[in-house]
Amino acid sequence: MSKIKVMSENLANKIAAGEVVEKCASVVKELVENSIDAASDSIKINLQDGGLKEIKITDNGAGMESEDALLSFQRHATSKLIREDDLFFINTLGFRGEALPSIASVSEVDLTTCASTIGTHIHIKGGKLEINEPSDARKGTIISVSNLFYNTPARLKYLKSEQYELANTVSFIEKLALSYPNIKFELTNNDKTLVKTSGSGNLLKTIHEIYGLNVSSKMLEVKGETDDYTMEGYICKPEILKSNRNHMITIVNGRVVRNNDLNRAINDAYYTYKPDIKFPIVVLKFETDPTLIDVNIHPTKQDIKLSKTDELYKMIIDTIKDKLYKELLIPNALKEEATEISLPVAMIKNEIVTEKLEENENKISEKNYQTELDLSIKEEQEEYHPTKREDIIINPELKKIVLYPVGLALGTYIIAQNEEGVYLIDQHAAQERINYDKYLKALKEEVTTTIAPLFPINIELNTSDFLTIKENLDTLTKIGFNIEEFGLNTFIIKEHPTWLKRGFEEESIHKIFDSIISIGNKFDRVKFNEHIAITLACKMSIKANTRISIEAQEEILHELVNTDNPYNCPHGRPTIIKFSIYDLEKMFKRAMN
Fold first, then answer.
1. Residue 10 confidence (pLDDT) above 70
2. Residue 354, exposed/middle/buried by CB under 10 A (0-12, 13-18, 19+)?
3. Global pTM value
4. Distance between alpha carbon 251 and the CA centroid of its chain, in Å?
């Protein structure tokens, strides 16, 4: 007797549901994407108990005729993919024909749809058709999904709490609203509105409706293109950062995607503008020929493969870096008043978010509801070779600022002033940035000036470290060291570059050796230069709680404004913060409005 049997269609759909439907947000994603593909310009998502009890989607799209409505619940039935060649030209969000039958097999689905004069009402429970009848002629589709996974206990037990499931759904709808600012989205849970956008078509306005004024007022518009890709959208000033990557929103041909190459490029563009543990808020839309991407590698269609990633990577890096270079990025110590910010009048923030969501913010990695004000910034990407910028005026606004030091607070912060207000400068972070630029420039020089110490410096190592340094002696020679072996596991340094700080030569050489050893077999010259510049800059800069003269303060301020990125130290910490005259007058109640 044959052991191999053909699965029933219902069983196959339940198995498929395990890939397509992971949580409540998965159901919302599939249904809302169908509404978008149906050319809807208004979509309402009503949840009960975070979607655990019911998910209801209402749209004003094209709707379906009775025959199509019934056929849509058949596995692999779709209007979006007809021929095999269509796989190379996918322009819709859905195309597999798996979502509706998969959802219907593990829940109760009620569908009312109309494309002409007579509507259709269909009710399916656990994959079995129970009702198929005519209905009213409202144009569009209303579909509700209730009792999710009621007939698959193994899946039901993996659903999380109401707040967790709700947070996932809210996060996805916000991203979808940013992908389609021309569509009006409204998301409610238990009749409370959580997300509401106007469908104005203005991306900045939609960012404002999602994130609020404090974020939208600090967004910078960027545009870039190559022969194969175009990019446009908004990036945040480095003073507004988040603790996870969830707010790095990338949209390719209208589809919200997760792609490591795109995220890496964006993160690298902010190198030295932010700490490594913080991430920028960006909304970037990419358009390209459908043949250059593959969205058919996972049932959720959120992970995609990109072609020609090298040129795309370079375009992202150059565009974001150039924008940040040209902006004045000194953060205000206090939040700016709404009256000081020029935004469209119609931008009104919807503040309705449940208290429970805010209380659970730190427990839910997928969503961060609070606006964070973190004065941090960017770091030069490790493997990226920046293009020449001779024609770019770097930080032109900052170079117009003349700061007059008036003292030192706590032996750490230089107090400076001008006609616009008072500035606090972290003397260690500022000098660290200055030294970093000097060391990095020196390490890139093809010809290095060297000096011979009065007494040669001996460095003794263990065997493994000795062999690692010996393997990379050519690199050390290129940057100005004259090194020879001297007995067992020992090197003698007869000459070294002049840029090593006087009096700290041996300590600096140890730091350089440690960097080479830490990189090990994966030695890379660009990484080496960056690591050495950062390490030496930190160790050789003036420390906190160190009193310096007014003349020394003036020199630091003068050198700081001429650096590549004067706003942050190489680790991403801010170097300078501003208290405007208005801020001071408000704090002292001289300004009451």
1. no
2. middle
3. 0.68
4. 12
